[in-house]
Design a protein that fits this description.
The structure holds 2 protein chains of 2 kinds.
Chain A lengths: L5 H28 L5 H28 L33 H19 L9 H24 L4 H5 L7 H19 L15 H20 L7 H29 L4 H15 L8 H25 L7 H19 L18 H31 L6 H6 L1 H6 L7
Chain B lengths: L1 H17 L13 H12 L1
Classes of the chains: A mainly alpha, B mainly alpha.
Chain lengths: 410, 44
């Protein structure tokens, strides 16, 4: 068992708070993109998940994700149910220089934001009750196992040597694929083909994007699990990739549509943050520029394809988080270098072509499992309570129909 | 203690399962309240 380092502990606790702020930030990011009659319900999805998963993580989530392996590297045992035996002393397995509970709290915030990301796909039409049941089931049956595969030293993808610094596969790919499945199963919003739905508050979305960018420093640099050089690398690569992707997206929208899109700046920055997430502590700042640039192009293209497909992933969760997460995970296999992080591995450019294959295997496994499990959960939830609100409720807006409140008095 | 914690969460889960899916019956759900509120705000 390690000795507690005050600097490492302070940084991880601050990072936990930074990542916590991302979920309300996501609420504002999504909230601004929907119509005014649905802003409260959209914000409520993220805010409620912050409370919901905070509790389930303590009761069983952490043990399933990070507990001693139950066998085959698939899921953790229930040894740490209710955080029994988890205290202020460092863990022998995780982050040996900080209290085990600090690591629990840091990981809790990841577990919180991941199902919240999915909510953008079924915004403006999902029944709140169905959303609650889905979120409990998804964080238990999808997030916890995948986190175990990748981040537990006994996880099967961890054994293979997958590189995922802060959750490109665990958080973004898993939630992005789930979002696509949810959008397909819940169906399109009413009247979508007849008239476009415009964001009701772009400044709100920009504020949310700013909070996400700010919190992402904790998400990625905090994943170094210490106040050290790797944390500094991760912070710089995170900021660089976000900036480059924002610049790329705005430029593409400028060339393609004739004007530099403000929403494009926000969405582009988020795409860059997503793509650098698996790579942040493994690549150089120059690598981050290439990753940010690449993901800006790829995700912009994905969002255009989504529009043409008429799949109503309302807030482009798959195009940004699914595609961006997969792109980032693959790019990690290309650009990773032990010169930045001796605990990592070299990627393709460092002469280790096999890393690309490992990353591809991880991407495929995570995407396939998330898709299948999400579909199963939605089918089961639909047996208990209809996922979609009635037509009248959708017309009136979910704020009134589901929550009995309205956002704006005029 | 842990059992009590699980029971406390289980009570919430049971409440969510049995709670009504909508606050209003569909027939009562119209955009009217928002229209009225907007009109009142303008009048003020």
């Amino acid at each position: 068992m390690g000795t507690i380092d005050s600097g490492d502990t302070a940084w991880l606790l601050v990072s936990t708070a930074l990542v916590m702020l991302m979920t309300p930030g996501l609420a504002l990011f999504y909230g601004g993109l929907v119509r005014r009659k649905n802003v409260l319900s959209t914000i409520m999805h993220s805010f409620f998940i912050l409370a919901l998963v905070s509790v389930t993580w303590v009761l069983w989530g952490y043990s399933l994700a990070f507990g001693p392996d139950a066998g085959l590297g698939l899921i953790g045992r229930l040894d740490w149910l209710g955080l029994e035996g988890v205290g202020p002393a460092p863990s022998a397995t995780y982050a040996p220089s900080v209290p085990h509970l600090a690591f629990v709290a840091f990981q809790m915030m990841f577990a919180v934001i991941t199902p919240a990301l999915i909510t953008g796909a079924f915004a403006e039409r999902k029944r709140f009750k169905a959303f609650v049941l889905f979120s409990v089931a998804w964080s238990t049956l999808v997030y916890a196992p995948i986190a175990h595969w990748v981040w537990s030293p006994d996880g099967w993808l961890s054994h293979l040597g997958i590189l995922d610094f802060a959750g490109g596969t665990v958080v973004h790919l898993a939630s992005g694929v789930a979002a696509l499945v949810a959008a397909l199963m819940v169906g399109r919003r009413m009247g979508l083909l007849e008239s476009a739905t415009e964001p009701h508050d772009v400044p709100m979305t920009l504020l949310g994007a700013g909070l996400l960018w700010f919190g992402w420093f904790g998400f990625n640099a905090g994943s170094a699990l210490g106040a050290n050089g790797v944390a500094a690398v991760a912070l710089v690569t995170t900021n660089t990739a976000a900036a480059m992707a924002a610049l790329t997206w705005v430029t593409l929208s400028w060339l393609h549509r004739g004007s530099p899109s403000v929403i494009g700046a926000a969405v582009g920055a988020v795409a860059g943050l997503v793509a650098i997430t698996p790579a942040a502590g493994f690549v150089t700042p120059a690598g981050a520029i290439l990753i940010g640039s690449g993901v800006g192009v790829v995700c912009y293209g994905a969002s255009l394809l989504r529009l043409r497909s008429r799949v109503d992933d309302a807030l482009d969760v798959f195009a940004v988080h699914g595609v961006g997460g997969a792109f980032g995970a693959l790019a990690t296999g290309v650009f990773a270098t032990v010169a930045v992080n001796p605990a990592g591995r070299d990627g393709l450019l460092g002469g280790n072509a096999a890393q690309v294959g490992i990353q591809l295997l991880g991407i495929t496994a995570v995407a396939a499992y998330s898709a299948a499990a999400t579909a199963g959960i939605l089918l089961l939830v639909n047996l208990v309570v209809r996922i979609r609100v009635p037509r009248e409720a959708e017309e009136a807006g979910l704020d009134v129909a589901q929550h009995g409140e309205i956002a704006y008095q005029s | 203690m842990i059992i009590a914690a699980f029971l406390a969460f289980g009570a919430l889960l049971a409440a969510w399962l049995t709670a009504p899916a909508e606050r209003h019956r569909p027939a009562e759900v119209t955009p009217q309240p928002m229209v009225e509120l907007a009109a009142e705000a303008q009048a003020a």
